């Protein structure tokens, strides 16, 4: 999903943190985030916010150091909620090593109320985890990823949930060991409850699944028109909805995301979807698919690494756990 990582992956993961964003860009993105919060609260959603932290300070670990942290714009990246489990994920990007600390007061509160709190094994993130000679796959080639199999790493945003089924995309933030760790943990903690499915997409810069493959409602699967070349047989009988070409103007800076954030929507339930104002192709398609669209400006926020799905993390939803397959 992060479109700026086309070159220099090795150095990017090792040393790159958040940039010093221009104040005007921050102000525009904050205005959009405030409008999203207002929409969510108007729809009956309880909105909680992370703690304030200073992200300008350097990070240091036994095997590496980074100049500063990335930030905390996208809680969906670092925390995976599965049922009553709150899982802090082992992120591969060094500048995001302590990102969940901004949510610790909330996590402790949920823990005191009965949630299960677990952190995946904290990765060492030594140089050996990253492939210094990485080059993205060319047309017709098998996908390649920057990560080696030195230790389990994955971002929560590499996972898309659909009832009892979790779809996990192999990417440059999620390796095979990360998928296997999640599968073993869920099998041990909740025997027979969840199924983990490994996914590989036709994406030379794969990172996160929620702008590529997204079951948005029972019987409706939203996919990127080019990255998803194979639909798993379990989706037989589902409507496969190919997201239209995005409408975001070329003038918008997208240092930390791709143009395809129109795929990254937030489903409030099986019929209501929050989509980006101005993405007229996508909005028209959603309406033709029988969805009620709630529009919110979000192009400025996209520059900070994601869209509605990334910017939110649902802790509780009404209804019961069920299987859709």
Question: Could you write a compact summary of the structure shown?
Answer:
This protein is 21% helix and 18% strand.
Strand content: 15-25%
Principal-axis shape: globular
CATH names the topology as L-arginine/glycine Amidinotransferase, Chain A
- Biggest sheet statistics: 3 strands, mixed
Computed over alpha carbons, the radius of gyration is 19 Å
Structure summary, number of beta strands = 14
- CATH superfamily heading: L-arginine/glycine Amidinotransferase, Chain A
> What's the architecture, going by CATH?
5-stranded Propeller
The total tally of domains equals 1
- Helicity range: 10-25%
- Helix-strand category: alpha/beta
Main sheet: which strands, in order across?
3-4-5
Describe this structure in words.
- Helix content is 21%, strand content 18%.
- By secondary structure, the protein is an alpha/beta fold.
- The strands form five sheets. The protein has a three-stranded mixed beta sheet with strand order 3-4-5, with helices on one face. It has a three-stranded mixed beta sheet with strand order 6-7-8, covered by helices on one side. Strands 9-10-11 form a three-stranded mixed beta sheet, with no helix packed on it.
- The longest helix is centred in the first third of the chain and has 20 residues.
- The protein starts with 8 loop residues before the first helix and ends in a 14-residue tail after the last helix.
- The N terminus is likely disordered.
